[in-house]
């Protein structure tokens, strides 16, 4: 405390302040203290002009300790375009200093404002010496910041349960190939293969033909057990007869999470790891499991073996627990939703199989459809059920009778079981148990044609969730037929477009996050932010409309954007920005819901802005800026200036 | 006895003489940003004007009407009487901490040097100055002659002038206590009863008042002196 002659350290206030804001918090403490010593404090009463566009030389980085500023452009006629509000913990002047130019916008205080001033030279030193600095200020959405944001989200918003450091998302599959790759010629006998597996104590062998690099298949000890020993097959048979071919392979640079997803969705336990077309080795589900304690894979396996309803109910309740683990391991919301979809689908499949057991075989093939966020694979926590059912067109009146009775019963029972699994039934939601949404294929085709013409179907007008469908269980070709019909009719009819675009544009996102409130274009302020409706909905509708218009069959928002960019329907930079904005908002929502889940309240999407970090608010703001651009794309689509 | 008498009679320390020289020609009609200021605060063993002593000094320098966070002054001072008393509960400085602190004799030359060339600012500065000058006279044979600005006077003046313009203040009408003013003007808040933090709090108040008064037409020290002169109990210059 007493400063016996030494240079005094900067007061705690500035060190604390810098230590809490990006990107200064990344500095080590000693450097932070050195920087803090150069800071001055200034006060600007409300209405002070800090910068004049094109004139003011920026001599300091202004860090707002308290108060707020607005930045705006003014044209020759004096029209003012508001660009941004900045509040506590935020900065002004960085761009001017980095570029060495005068202020590029007018800045005025909108409240009495105290600022910490960091001299230009000190700031420039940091920009050149600290790798993260320039990046932070220049690229509003650089990947580094995004990942820092995720880390921050994880660090601050979720308490870790133990000192678990798990690697599903950081370790590449190349790094977990344990044993040396063992190969045997595809012409070898089963017995030779078994001997080789024993000698090297491996559970699988790759099979080659002609030369060792030409891998044609794989056999595992399970094949030997099930296909040879159990059936009494001759030990001299060649392994060709029992191999799995071709080998499912995965790139060596894939992260283990994706390998796990691949194994689960293909129902296999071995994956060949390839690099530049060459197989490096084999990884097993066990190798991946070793990376992970409480694994979604084990839950998946457990669900797959259960047929009794009570057991499935309780297993379904474990799904949210998987979410927490995945977040801890570094999963993004998109990854998690993918995993949750696999698990939910598994539960659904087991339930439907069990219901089929009770009711007997269905009279015609059917497909259980998932709509809305489940249809987009964007659901993480269970919200209301949204599903429908399509069955193959019956051949006659008698079969039609049988089908409607059977599927009514099936969907009612299933819906109840789903409710018991924790998916609530909500009145206003679309459900297969409502006879209107449990229909033969031709009725569905008619519905979609009507919607796309802009007509209503039994009082229901074009509704986005019906266009985000996928097969939850059953006969997938039925769904594919519907999809083909949608793609065809969306091309043919344009009746839906104008009103859908209009609806999208009126839902314009708020202009800015300013301190702890949202400021709308009309100046209206709110402190509660509905991240689903105000944040994500514009991106989701945007991707849906474009996907419909350009005949993209994918339903997941991120995937739709990827395809649109790949097919050059959408500027790839814009697509990337939308994806990033989408992901960060999904992540904020996810963590919010996880928290609600853990304190026992029902997950919703209302975010209190005051609880978000300064970085999260910045990400939101950057995301909002995109919406105007998206609306412009939609508008030109609606007036038909975009080429098909 | 003789020795202390000698101290009272001796010539002022050269530091003080130098300091005094600097203010002889001071022009009070310059705008406020043209002066340097030292905002200071002291923690005391109590409020008895002759018995009590300074146990901590905190100060920050202001130039160009900006607070220089790199240039602060903060120290504990070992008093002559070293026992816990009631004030200990206020500032939470323990006798143990004070035992290890430098004595006034060591602290003062550094402080006088720190204040050199600057106007002294404080909230009810006359109180701090009384105790400081008591100690300075004893140790250095003179007093600080720096002109002083009292933020309490400025606050009263600001409230008067702003009130005439129709500005209404929400809470604590009339109070000029530092803590109440901080709330009323919605200033960033520092930890109270720490000499440096209190000095910072006062410095924030000073910046606020200086700029707010400017918008009301009060631009120079002379303006403050003229307009702020009201009661004799507050020392202004």
What does this protein look like?
The complex is a heterodimer of chains A (644) and B (237). Chain A folds into four domains: 12-138, Jelly Rolls (Sandwich), CATH 2.60.120.10; 173-289, CBS-domain, CATH 3.10.580.10; 335-491, Beta Polymerase, domain 2; 498-638, Four Helix Bundle (Hemerythrin (Met), subunit A), CATH 1.20.120. In chain A, 46% of the residues lie in helices and 17% in strands. In chain A, the strands form seven sheets. Chain A has a four-stranded antiparallel beta sheet. Chain B has one domain (2-228): Ribonuclease H-like superfamily/Ribonuclease H (Nucleotidyltransferase, domain 5), CATH 3.30.420. Chain B has ten helices and five strands. Chain B has a five-stranded mixed beta sheet with strand order 3-2-1-4-5, with helices on both faces. In chain B, strand 2 (54-63) and strand 3 (66-76) form a beta hairpin. The chains are: A alpha+beta (644), B alpha/beta (237). Strand 1 of chain A pairs antiparallel with strand 3 (66-76) of chain B.
Write the layout of secondary structure elements.
The complex is a heterodimer of chains A (644) and B (237).
Chain A: H1 12-19, H2 29-36, E1 40-44, E2 49-51, E3 60-66, E4 69-74, E5 80-86, E6 91-92, H3 94-99, E7 106-109, E8 113-119, H4 120-129, H5 131-138, H6 143-157, E9 183-185, H7 190-199, E10 204-209, E11 211-220, H8 221-229, E12 249-251, H9 256-266, E13 270-275, E14 278-284, H10 285-289, H11 296-304, H12 309-316, H13 319-328, H14 333-359, E15 366-370, H15 372-375, E16 387-391, H16 397-420, E17 438-440, H17 441-453, E18 470-474, H18 476-492, H19 497-506, E19 512-514, E20 517-519, E21 525-526, E22 528-530, H20 531-549, H21 557-566, H22 572-599, E23 606-608, H23 614-638
Helix pairs in contact in A: 1-2, 4-5, 6-22, 9-14, 11-14, 12-14, 13-14, 14-16, 17-18, 19-20, 19-23, 20-21, 20-22, 20-23, 21-22, 22-23
Chain B: H1 2-9, H2 14-24, E1 37-44, E2 54-63, E3 66-76, H3 87-91, H4 95-99, H5 104-115, E4 119-122, H6 125-140, E5 148-150, H7 151-164, H8 178-184, H9 195-215, H10 221-228
Helix pairs in contact in B: 5-6, 7-9
């Amino acid at each position: 405390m007493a400063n016996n002659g030494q240079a005094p350290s900067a007061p705690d206030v500035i060190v604390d302040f810098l230590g809490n804001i990006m990107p200064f918090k990344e500095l080590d403490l000693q450097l932070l203290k050195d920087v803090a010593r150069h800071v001055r404090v200034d006060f600007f009463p409300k209405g002070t002009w800090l910068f004049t566009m094109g004139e003011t030389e920026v001599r300091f980085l202004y860090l707002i300790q308290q108060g707020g500023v607005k930045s705006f452009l003014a044209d020759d006629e004096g029209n003012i375009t508001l660009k941004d509000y900045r509040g506590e913990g935020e900065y002004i002047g960085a761009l001017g200093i980095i570029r060495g130019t005068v202020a590029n916008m007018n800045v005025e205080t909108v409240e009495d404002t105290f600022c910490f001033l960091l001299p230009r030279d000190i700031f420039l030193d940091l920009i050149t010496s600290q790798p993260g600095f320039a990046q932070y200020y220049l690229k509003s959405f650089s990947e580094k910041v995004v990942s820092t944001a995720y880390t921050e989200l994880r660090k601050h918003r979720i308490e870790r349960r133990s000192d678990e450091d798990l690697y599903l998302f950081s370790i590449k599959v190349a790094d977990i190939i344990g044993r040396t790759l063992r190969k045997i010629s595809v012409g070898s006998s089963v017995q030779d293969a078994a001997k080789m597996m024993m000698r090297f104590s491996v559970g699988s062998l790759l099979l080659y033909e002609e030369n060792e690099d030409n891998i044609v298949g794989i056999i595992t000890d399970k094949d030997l057990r099930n296909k040879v020993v159990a059936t009494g097959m001759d030990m001299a048979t060649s392994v060709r007869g029992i191999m799995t071919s071709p080998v499912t392979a995965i790139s060596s640079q894939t992260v283990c999470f994706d390998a796990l997803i691949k194994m689960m969705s293909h129902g296999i336990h071995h994956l060949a790891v390839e690099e530049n077309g060459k197989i490096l080795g084999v990884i097993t589900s066990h190798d991946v499991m070793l990376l992970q304690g409480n694994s979604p894979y084990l839950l998946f396996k457990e669900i797959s073996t259960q047929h009794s309803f009570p057991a499935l109910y309780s297993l379904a309740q474990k799904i949210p627990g998987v979410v927490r683990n995945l977040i801890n391991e570094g999963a993004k919301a998109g990854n998690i939703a993918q995993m949750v979809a696999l698990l939910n689908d598994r539960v659904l499949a087991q339930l439907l199989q069990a219901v089929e057991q009770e009711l007997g075989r269905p009279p015609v093939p059917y497909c259980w459809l998932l709509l809305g966020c489940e249809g987009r694979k964007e659901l993480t926590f269970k919200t209301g059920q949204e599903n429908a059912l399509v069955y193959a067109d019956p051949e006659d009146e008698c079969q039609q009778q049988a089908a409607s009775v059977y599927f009514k019963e099936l969907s009612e029972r299933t819906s109840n079981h789903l409710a018991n699994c924790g998916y609530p039934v909500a009145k206003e939601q679309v459900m297969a148990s409502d006879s209107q949404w449990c229909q033969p294929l031709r009725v569905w085709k008619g519905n979609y044609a009507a919607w796309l013409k802009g007509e209503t179907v039994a009082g229901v007008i074009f509704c986005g969730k019906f266009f985000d469908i996928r097969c939850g269980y059953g006969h997938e070709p039925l769904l594919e037929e519907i999809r083909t019909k949608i793609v065809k009719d969306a091309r043919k009819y344009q009746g839906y477009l104008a009103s859908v675009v209009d609806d999208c544009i009126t839902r314009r996102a708020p202009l800015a996050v300013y301190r702890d409130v949202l400021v709308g274009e009309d100046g209206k302020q709110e402190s509660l932010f509905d991240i689903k409706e105000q944040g994500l909905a514009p991106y989701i509708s945007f991707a849906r409309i474009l996907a419909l218009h350009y005949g993209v069959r994918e339903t997941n928002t991120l995937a739709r954007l990827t395809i649109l960019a790949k097919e050059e329907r959408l500027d790839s930079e814009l697509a990337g920005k939308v994806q990033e904005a989408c992901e960060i908002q999904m992540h904020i929502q996810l963590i919010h819901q996880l928290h609600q889940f853990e304190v026992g309240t029902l997950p919703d999407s209302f975010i209190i802005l005051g609880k978000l970090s300064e970085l999260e608010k910045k990400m939101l703001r950057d995301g909002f800026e995109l919406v105007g651009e998206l609306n412009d794309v939609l508008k030109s689509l609606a007036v038909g200036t975009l080429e098909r | 006895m003789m020795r202390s008498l000698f101290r009272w009679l001796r010539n002022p320390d050269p530091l003080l003489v130098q300091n005094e020289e600097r203010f002889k020609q001071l022009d009070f009609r310059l705008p406020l940003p043209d002066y340097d200021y030292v905002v200071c605060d002291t923690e005391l063993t109590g409020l008895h004007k002759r018995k009590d002593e300074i146990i901590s000094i905190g100060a920050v320098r202001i130039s160009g009407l900006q607070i220089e966070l790199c240039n602060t002054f903060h120290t504990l001072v070992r008093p002559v009487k070293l026992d816990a008393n009631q004030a200990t509960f206020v500032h939470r400085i323990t006798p143990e901490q004070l035992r290890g602190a430098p004595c006034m004799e060591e602290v003062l030359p550094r402080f006088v040097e720190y204040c050199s060339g600057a106007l002294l600012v404080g909230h009810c500065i006359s109180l701090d100055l009384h105790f400081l000058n008591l100690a300075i006279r004893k140790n250095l044979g003179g007093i600080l002659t720096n002109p002083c600005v009292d933020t309490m006077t400025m606050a009263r003046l600001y409230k008067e002038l702003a009130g005439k313009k129709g500005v209404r203040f929400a809470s604590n009408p009339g109070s000029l206590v530092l803590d109440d003013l901080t709330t009323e003007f919605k200033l960033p808040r520092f930890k109270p009863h720490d000499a440096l933090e209190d000095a910072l709090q006062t410095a924030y108040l000073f910046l606020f008042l200086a700029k707010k008064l400017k918008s009301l037409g009060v631009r120079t020290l002379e303006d403050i002196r003229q307009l702020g002169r009201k009661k004799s109990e507050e020392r202004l210059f």
